[in-house]
């Protein structure tokens, strides 16, 4: 491949001009590739291996813009911790859209690529640690079979960024189905121009919900589809103990992918009110609050869509409220199905649902490890070994579980298979992530590569995973995570 052999499209730039600003990344002085995701490059058919090393580095640093490419920064707004703000890509540039062999259209975006008209007071840059953090957690989420943006590469810029201390600057190449957010709709709504809103609705339907084009009431069908998709996504997060940490409306992508990995973290000990983010003082985005917050964000989206839902505002409001109200039952249904799967129970009934909630109650009281409790249940049918399980309440629960499994009319193998597909053997535990990032800060990428490889097949087990499966010792516990902006 020569330097400009590939062609990136830009359908986004056909939206009304208010939605973006065309500009290129700010060149950096001395870029170096820290990590490149060959497997992903191959999967999406964006193979850069024929480029000279210099050109490849220059491309991933934003120093080389292929001919015919029209980079842009996207405009958006959003509620951050409940407060409305004008935002936009303040430190990201969309290089263009790449068509994968699967036919999927993918955004290629640089994060940390310099100032834009939306940078407000910020420097437009990113530090190495947080970009590696996004890389490892997004790739782990993908391996966990959870919709997510992906990470193609991290380069250092050769320049420093200044946060509390001086840190090495870096740029992440993010691959996403798109970067349209609830906040993009909030931004469109500010213009109070139906044509602008209609253009965004049509674009989103074209790009992500083509089946809706056949429908009569397209904006309503779109809202319904998005509600369903977000209920699915949050159910996945709950399944693996993922806490996003900043579920602001600008961080909710309407592709249905998990996006914007900042202070996100996986829970070790089960606790519904678990929070890691240093900026989430009120616990707004705590583990068990995530479904409520998704619904809150969806309500903000519905408000934006009112003018296109119906000419008569009262009717539009009634339609939106009806759909929003459906979220609770929809989510609850998905959540119970997911929890039953974690217990290997196919049958939908109250006894099975109660088993799920009662186990969580016990785990909460006994401060059990979320991931490992389910792993232990998969090990054997008799009560699992270990001091924590030598508890009357647990034993009673376990006997009920066994009796429900017997009522399954299915061989135990098929229940076990259901559990194996629902319960990860390994998650990116905070202390292992921090350990890898601290080593990377000292130019030792070995632990980072080992961590990536341990997280590659999280539904398989093996001795090599042992160091990544143990909960942190008291002195290893990570109490807080940071967004690194
Ligand atoms: P985030 O917390 O990463 O979702 O970012 C929230 C908003 O702040 C987005 O509009 C970002 O583009 C912007 N932002 C974050 N960090 C920076 C930075 N260093 N320079 C400029 N804008 C930033
Ligand atoms: Mg964001």
Instruction: List segments where confidence is low: pLDDT < 50 over at least 5 consecutive residues.
Output: none
Radius of gyration from CA coordinates: 23 Å
Q: Quick one: overall form?
A: globular
What's the N-to-C terminus distance? Answer: 35 Å
The helix count comes to 15
Helix proportion range: 40-55%
The main pleated sheet reads as:
6 strands, antiparallel
- The H/E string reads EEHHEEEEEEHEEHHHEEHHHHHHHHH
Would you kindly provide a brief summary of this structure?
With 485 residues, the protein is an alpha+beta fold.
Structure characterization notes:
- The protein has 485 residues and is α+β, with helices and mostly antiparallel strands.
- The protein folds into three domains: 11-176, no CATH class; 182-334, no CATH class; 343-422, no CATH class.
- The protein is 42% helix and 13% strand.
- It contains 15 helices and twelve strands.
- A hairpin with a 3-residue loop joins strand 9 and strand 10 (166-176).
- Helix 3 (128-143) crosses helix 13, helix 9 runs antiparallel to helix 11 and helix 13 packs antiparallel against helix 14.
- The model has no long low-confidence stretch (mean pLDDT 96).
Q: How would you describe this structure in keywords?
A:
single chain, 485 residues, alpha+beta, 6-stranded antiparallel β-sheet, two-stranded antiparallel sheet, 15 helices, binds adenosine monophosphate, binds magnesium ion
Layout of strands and helices, then pairs:
Elements: E1 20-22, E2 32-36, H1 38-43, H2 53-60, E3 72-74, E4 77-80, E5 83-86, E6 92-99, E7 105-111, E8 126-127, H3 128-143, E9 150-162, E10 166-176, H4 182-190, H5 194-208, H6 218-240, E11 242-243, E12 265-266, H7 290-309, H8 313-342, H9 350-365, H10 370-379, H11 392-406, H12 412-422, H13 430-441, H14 446-454, H15 466-469
Antiparallel strand pairs: 1-3, 2-9, 4-5, 6-7, 7-10, 8-10, 9-10, 11-12
This protein binds adenosine monophosphate and magnesium ion.
Adenosine monophosphate (AMP) binds at residues 87-91, 118-119, 122-125, 246, 251, 260, 262, 483, 485.
């Amino acid at each position: 491949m020569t330097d400009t052999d590939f062609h990136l499209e830009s359908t986004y730039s056909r939206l009304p001009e208010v939605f973006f600003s065309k500009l290129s990344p700010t060149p950096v002085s001395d870029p170096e590739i820290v990590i490149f995701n060959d497997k992903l490059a191959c999967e999406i058919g964006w193979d850069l291996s024929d480029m000279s090393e210099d050109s490849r580095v220059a491309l991933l640093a934003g120093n080389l813009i292929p001919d015919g490419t029209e980079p842009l920064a996207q405009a958006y707004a959003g509620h951050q911790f409940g407060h409305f703000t004008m935002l936009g890509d303040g430190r990201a540039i969309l290089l263009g859209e790449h068509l994968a062999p699967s036919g999927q259209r993918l955004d290629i975006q640089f994060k940390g690529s310099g100032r834009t008209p939306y940078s407000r007071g910020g420097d437009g840059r990113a530090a190495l640690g947080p970009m590696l953090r996004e890389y490892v957690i997004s790739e782990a989420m993908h391996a966990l079979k959870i919709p997510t943006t992906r990470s193609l590469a991290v380069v250092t810029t050769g320049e420093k960024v200044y946060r509390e201390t001086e840190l090495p600057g870096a740029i992440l190449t993010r691959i996403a189905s798109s970067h349209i957010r609830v906040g993009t709709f909030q931004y469109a709504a500010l213009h109070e121009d139906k044509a602008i809103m209609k253009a965004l609705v049509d674009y989103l339907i074209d790009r992500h919900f083509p089946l809706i084009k056949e429908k009569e009431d397209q904006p309503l069908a779109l809202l319904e589809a998005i509600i369903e998709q977000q209920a699915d996504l949050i159910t996945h997060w709950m399944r693996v103990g993922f806490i996003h940490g900043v579920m602001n409306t600008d961080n909710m992508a309407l592709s249905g992918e998990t996006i914007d990995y900042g202070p996100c973290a996986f829970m070790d000990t089960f606790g519904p009110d678990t929070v890691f983010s240093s900026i989430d003082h009120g616990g707004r985005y705590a583990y068990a609050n995530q479904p409520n917050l998704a619904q809150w964000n969806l309500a903000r989206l519905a408000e934006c869509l009112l003018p296109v839902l119906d000419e008569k505002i009262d009717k539009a409001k009634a339609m939106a409220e009806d759909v929003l109200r459906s979220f609770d039952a929809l989510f609850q249904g998905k959540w119970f199905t997911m929890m039953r799967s974690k217990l290997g129970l196919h049958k939908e009934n109250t006894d099975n649902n109660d088993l799920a909630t009662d186990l969580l109650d016990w785990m909460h009281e006994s401060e059990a490890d979320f991931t490992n409790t389910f792993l232990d249940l998969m090990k054997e049918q008799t009560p699992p070994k270990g001091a924590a399980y030598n508890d009357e309440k647990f034993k009673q629960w376990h006997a009920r579980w066994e009796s429900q499994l017997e009522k399954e009319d299915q061989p135990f193998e098929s229940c076990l298979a259901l559990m194996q597909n629902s319960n990860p053997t390994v998650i990116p535990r905070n202390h292992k992530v921090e350990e890898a990032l601290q080593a990377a800060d000292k130019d030792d990428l070995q632990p980072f590569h080992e961590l990536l490889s341990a997280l590659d097949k999280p539904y398989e087990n093996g001795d090599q995973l042992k160091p990544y499966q143990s909960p942190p010792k008291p002195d290893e516990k990570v109490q807080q995570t940071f967004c690194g902006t």
